[in-house]
Each structure stands twice: as C-alpha cells, then as structure tokens.
Amino acid sequence: MVAMAALPGPVLVVGTGLLGTSMGLALREHGVEVLLRDTSPAAAHLARDMGAGRLAGLAAGEPAPVAHPVLVVVATPPDVVVPTVLAALEEYPAAVVTDVASVKGSVEAAVLAAAGTEGPRYVGSHPMAGREKSGAAAADADLFHGRTWVICTRDDVVRGGVAMVRALATTVGAVPLAMPAEEHDVAVAVVSHLPQIMASLAAARLDAVPGDALSLAGQGLRDTTRIAASDPMLWAKILSANATAVLPHASAVRDQMSELVEALERAARDGVGSEGVMGTFARAIHRGRDGVSRIPGKHGGAARRYAEVTVLVPDKPGQLGRLFGEVGEAGVNIEDFRMEHSAGAKLGVATLSVVPARQVELTEHLENQGWRVMQ
Sign of torsion, CA 100 104 106 109? Predict the structure, then answer.
C-alpha cells in the first residue's frame, strides 16, 4: 500500500541528474505526482524509465504538464540555476520554487534582484546528500534518507513557502534545518568543499605511483580519496561560486602544509632528531584528532567512542550476510561498519563498531561460531 503523501502534488523537478532523479524516485514512493523536465531529452527519458515521474515540457516538444505544480524543484547544474529559477517563477505564478544548488548566497541574491514581486515565492535549499557518481543512472530513492536538508529562510518568503520545502525534505526522508544562505555557504566551505579539494589533491598524487606500490593501498587511502571520483566540471562550478567562503580555509591549509614541508625538509636533511621536527608533526596530527572529535556522531548526536571487533571474512557468497546474522543473534547492534580487502588475499577484513560494553561478548560469540576474530 502506498503511503499517504506528506507533500501535495504535482511537483515539477527541473534537471534529471543524480539529485533530481533521486528526488523523483523518493517522491513517487510516497505517492506524490512528479513531473520531469530537462534540456536533455535523453536524460529525462532515462529518469522517466527509472520510475522518477512523467515527462513535462521538454525541449524535444513533449507537452507541458496538464496540472500546474504546487512546487518546482530546480536541480540543474549550478551555473544555470538562477535563470532556471527565474523562468519557473514566471511560468508557474502559483508555485513555490526551490533549488538544490550547493551554494546559496549568490543564487538567492541574484534571484531576488531579478524576480521583483515574484521573489517571495523562491526558497533556496540544499540537501546535504550526494555521491561521487553523477547522472540519473546513479540515482537512489534513499539518497536523502537521514540527511540534513538546509532551508534558507527569509522574512519576505510567501506564507507557506518554507513549509512546502520542509514537506519536500521530510517526504524524501531528510531532516530539515533552517539556516540563512550566507551562513550555509560559510559552513559548507569547510564541511564539504574543502574536503573535496583535499581528497582530489591527495588522489592526484597517485598518478605518479607505480602499480606495485598501489597494491599496498588499504582502507585509509580509499576512505580519504573516495570523493575524488566526483564530477570535475560540477565541482569547478561549485568552488568558483563559493570561492569567498572557501578561500580562508584553503589559505590556512596552505600555511599548515608549508610548515609541514619545512619540517619534512629538516627531517630529510638532518634526521628526525632535528629540533622542532617531531613537535611539528605531532601538532598537525593532534589538531586533526581534535577536529574529528567534533564531527557529530550517530543520528547527529555527540560523537561517541565505539569498540571495534575485526573479523576475517572468506571471499565467498553469503559470508557477509552470515556474519551480520550471527551478530544479530548475539543481540548486538552494529553502530558502524567498514570492509577492507587485502591485495591477493581471498578474504576481507570486516570491522564492526559496537558499544564498548558488548565488545568482549560479541568477540566470544563470533569465535564460538567459527569466525576468526583479530585481537
């Protein structure tokens, strides 16, 4: 049975890439009527065929939507968000219009400057969700589940406008958070945009690494560089749009890196006993640890320290499922999980994060079930 929609329809999604198609899929699961539009007919057709909605007003000549949308969601690339929002405000005078661009301040300012009396129907927003893959083919109805969805509130927003965007967020499983546009841009500069830069710079160094060296890569490298597989053009636009907010963080990293390079040069020239070298390295790592400790934990609460139970898992069908099943039989909740494979080894190393009080109990239970638990 289809759940009753928390959001009235129809909703027009303009832009059928990863976010737009994922949104359509999630809304359709909750019975919301979704209309799809994209300047690329092929992209829109793929989103439709995946079940994200029905076509509406494509450049290829498909008819405009029969019913006017109550909400228009602009999910286009950042460089065309403003004209697309303005066009939607003009075309649908009764609809609330939002966008999901990852930079809000410049978009909001440009829209309000050009929209005139229609500006109050615009509410900027940004779901803190995504993948390193792009396009409709990478879409997932669960993409927004449990993710923060920033809604940029203003005093002049039309009555019910913020509530409409809030309903969009909650319907697709996100957690709405009100935040002014400029404050949003300052925040994402350090929690999203700077990490992308650092991951890309680290991954770029792998071009010069011999294949034999890469065979030593462990989970640390994979974790650090995962988002480096992101769309280069998309990120070029994002960084350009939020350059003012990213600049101080990038400058600080440059200064800290210069300090580390100097210490590395002294260590290479004079040895690790050179004055100040060890202290410089230790301070850099310690600052990182302090930063990690501030990242919110499960369900957005305070970060917690978990105990880890590391299990060797044979590389055979069904083994991971069996492991999870036997953890469940022990009545232990897995708070976090990661999987690593060693080069050339026909087994994986599964690390289960659990509350410390259950670590010994789970270890003994798994060993009794024949699992090899690394101590």
Answer: positive
Inform me whether the pLDDT recorded for 69 exceeds 90: yes
Cβ-based neighbours of 11, under 8 Å, separated by 6 or more: 27, 32, 33, 34, 35, 69, 70, 71, 72, 73, 168
CATH number at 366 reads 3.30.70.260
Average pLDDT over residues 137-142: 90
SS3 for 35-96 is: EEECCCHHHHHHHHHCCCCEECCCCCCCCCCCCCCCEEEECCCHHHHHHHHHHHHHHCCCCE
| Residue pair 65/12 in contact by the 8 Å Cβ criterion | yes
Mean pLDDT of 138-160: 93
- Over the stretch 23-47, which tens digit does the pLDDT of each residue have? 999 999 999 999 999 999 999 999 9
> Residues 107, 149: one domain?
yes
Question: Residue 131 sits in a domain of what CATH number?
Answer: 3.40.50.720
Which residue's structure tokens are 């999630």?
26
Identify whether residues 119 and 232 lie together within a single domain.
Answer: no
Enclosing domain of residue 255: 186-298
Q: In terms of residues, how long is the chain?
A: 375
Q: Quick one: 171 and 37 in the same domain? A: yes
The counts of H helices and E strands in the chain are 14, 12
pLDDT digits (tens, 9 = 90+) for 215-252: 888 778 888 898 898 889 989 999 999 999 999 999 99
Choice between 180 and 221, residue whose per-residue pLDDT is larger:
180
State which of 298, 329, 352 marks the end of a domain.
298
Contact between 309 and 366 under an 8 Å Cβ cutoff? The reply is: yes
- Does residue 5 lie in a domain region? no
What's the number of domains the chain is made of?
Answer: 3
pLDDT at residue 272, as a whole number: 75
